[in-house]
Amino acid sequence: MTTKANVENLATLSRLLLSSEEKAALTQEVDAILTYVEKLNELDTSNVDPARQVHGVKNVYRKDRLKASQLRDRLLELAPDREGDFIRVPLVINQDGE
Amino acid sequence: MDYESVIGLEVHVQLSTESKIFSGASSHVTDKPNEHVDPVTFGLPGTLPVLNEKVVEFALRLGLALNCDIRRFNRFARKHYFYPDLPKGYQISQYEEPICGHGRLQFRDGEVTRTVGITRIHMEEDAGKSVHSAERQCSLLDLNRAGVPLLEVVSEPDIRSAREAAAYLRALRQLVRYLELSDGNMEEGSLRCDANVSLRPKGEMKFGTRTEIKNLNSFRFVERAIEYEVARQVAILKSGEPIVQETRLFDSESGTTRSMRSKEESADYRYFPDPDLPPLQIEESWINAVRAKLPTLPQEIFQSLIDDYGLSEYDAAVISAEHEYVRFFLEAQEVCKNPKATCNWITSEIFGALKQHGEQFSELRFSPLQLGQLIALIDQDVISGKIAKTVFEELYASGGSPNEIIERRGLKQITDDSAIREMVKEALRSNPEQVAQFREGNAKLLGFFVGQVMKLSKGSANPKLVNDILLEELKS
Amino acid sequence: MAELWQSDLWELSEGLEKREFSSKELTQMFLERIAHQEHLGCYLSVFEEKAIEQAEKADARRAAGDEVTKLTGVPLAIKDIITLNYGTTTCGSRFLEDYRSPFTATAAQRLLKAGTVILGKTNLDEFGMGSSNENSAFGPVKNPWDTSRVAGGSSGGSAAAVAARLCPAALGTDTGGSIRQPSAFCNVTGLKPSYGRVSRYGLVAFASSLDQIGPMGKNARDCALISECIFGRDIRDSTSAPNEVPLFSSLLERDIKGLRIGVPKEYFREELSSEIASAIHKGLGELEKLGAEIKEVSLPHTDFATAAYYVIVPAEASSNLSRFDGIRYGKRADAQDLISLYAKSRSEGFGPEVKRRILIGTFVLSAGYYDAYYVKAQRARALIARDFEEAFSEKVDVIAAPTTPTTPFLLGEKTHDPISMYLNDIFTVPVNLAGLPSLSLPCGQNSSGLPIGFQLIGRAFDELTLFQVADAFQKTTDWHLRTPETKTHSKD
Questions:
Q1: Verdict on whether the full-model pTM lies above 0.80
Q2: E-assigned strands of C207-292?
Q3: A67, C33, C163, C334: least buried by Cβ within 10 Å?
């Protein structure tokens, strides 16, 4: 059966680990949902700009001022694993970042 | 077959704002890990970004200085990838609608002036940093840098050599420093550079397959990495193999580049407009205000130093390298009206002293006005060049008025004819043998007598007068 | 204290003002009721101590003659997707089971500043994703009108808590109907404000371009009172709108004679249950009696709203939920390497509907599909918004429509069919796509006694007219006063 989306690739891309049952069910569901939303293709949108936002608010800025947070300790307490004030994670193998 | 290298640079400029791009946390550097953090930096659920106006101003400043078109309606997009130092799982950046496009940077590469096109400039947030420990199998995460504002400057593939790439980067660094929007320090990562490199047969218009080289954190590395990469690609092409499109990492120890990841596992960033940030509509008035405040740019200053101040190209390049040198030069020469001497004093005495003391130009304890006065005093024969160096030592150490230093230390040049004649006479009296030898034709001894007189005057006698009077007295 | 739980906010406020009872007594009464009704699953956390503390403070404020508001000392509940700097904020997710937010959402902060008492945090579909509250990691909410049925979602906990009188009013959030649909299912009045009205700071983002916090209560005038407090621009949310907030509570009285009410023909379709259709028509008849002019309008792109919604919403959700990676907070699974740390933490932390939406969202944003799905949906969204603009610009002041196509369905009835679950939102999602305000209010009961809701949709930032029409309606009808025969009374 050909499906619209490769759920396995999508799961990898979105960092989800799916059991084979989940994969099977989700493949079907995702396919059904995509089929449903493809209803949009019936719509002629050639002369319509995509909605940017609904309420026209623009140009919202803050001044370049320091606002030191009093919450540093509480933030660090949230971390599941720490070493001193660092957050500890398993070794990052591909150390390239972006 | 002869190949031509086609090079484009992507440069990240870290902006020297007080606060982060989307929150009030400090964007300054600190040694303490996770010190400059707040709920936004941590990407806590429920937090929202609020744009720092200064970042937009800086983007406009750089965009205008690079002759870019300002996109009047621009907005932010989210770029998705998972990495521990990227708190939200996406980076807020600009994608389809960057703030600036279609600019150019003119710069000197040795003797020639080059122009490289600027494709775009966009605003984005920086990620945090991780320290990796292979033996302990862990990485330690510090989010101080996460959210610090960046401008990414993407060049057209107009660069043709490794040396030119370095020259372009130097010019860009010089520019951001002139514009006072970044310290441009490559070692500390305020300026980060990736290079896209491809080859094509000379005369061919079509681009070849390119590689992207990362981790170029000094001008020298940029040059070396590109040189290596070009040679590597030439070898591959000559052997008849295709170039693989990939990201490569420069290893500064070996001077080589190595493959980092192949394109098949290449990321799909899933960009889309960030719904948390309203679009920006840049008003004409803002653009005009930023334009009005732009300083004179390096290329213009370089030309003016040659045309208006008569400096050599070499000297003009040295002075125009940093805006602070230019300011110092202009203010000092305004006082003494001697641009050449001003330039020499800056490039030899000041730079020499700074180097000797390991200090920065910004730390100078005297003003350009005081240097100008010092040079004027030499030009007016109030002091000799030699005395001036003594005055400069004090000026360098603790600042002050050159006139006051000269007065206080009695360094004023003796220009009184009779006083010098007295000293000359004494010098001749004390050295009858040398006088006899001179008169027998040993003209070289004149220097000896000058030295003697200068010693008697403690260096303050006007050397020209000493010379004249000595000759008179010796002949009589 | 008899029957105080039946009082609305205005009456409670008056009682507090006249010292007929204290905030502490009121709070204690609600805490006791909550304890007796745990089986409904309305609350995920109850702040016994903190609430009493807040009540005592409110009482002290009154006693000292300090400045008070109508909400000072009034207990409320808030949906557990809105942060407080105490307790947990779970969002109905395993991933955030123990998550303690260090900061308080602006909307909650404004309530606290006004002196309200927060009783606890209400149950919801995980991150707001659902229409039945069955997607909560901590169990569903049962409908107080029939505990074999769903309370609706995603603000099911808030709706059921108001219906069962476990709080006088509550905050919910609405992305595609999450305030209005459970309000309709539980016989509650709920407002989805215009996009930008209420700060989203501290609202855990589900679909950022649609999410809004709003009030849910016994009637429109209570919703007006809460709106007055939580509306208004917030510098911490760049999408919050600068529009002036009217003093709703003093502007409710209005003769709606001559007001033009549009009825969109596209909403009266085969999926709409006939009992609901007839209740809506009766409701419209009431409004007509009050002098309103009822007109048919057309919103021709209604049919495409759900499709557009189920592209845009998963896209934004997949992005917003990327931050839940197990690195800085929340659940971190045991893992030797980073890739499996991510994948395991997320997979163990998220429920099936969340995963479904993440996958869909990832798909519609990925290279090669972005234009065909995401951009296409945004174009459709523009058309849907334009439908409303056109209806409002020439013909009508308010649009009236059913809130839901059906009355509450059975627990488990739709859990295996995501699309039929999604279609429960057909009448509510267009409003979110267009960013408009919409209020759902009780207008009848079906033959089995299940509540029916009807929604009023207003022009952008015109919540005032909605309150006025709803208030006028509620002055002449008593549907909103009906309560389920809960077991509280029979039990003791």
A1: yes
A2: 212-217, 260-264
A3: C334
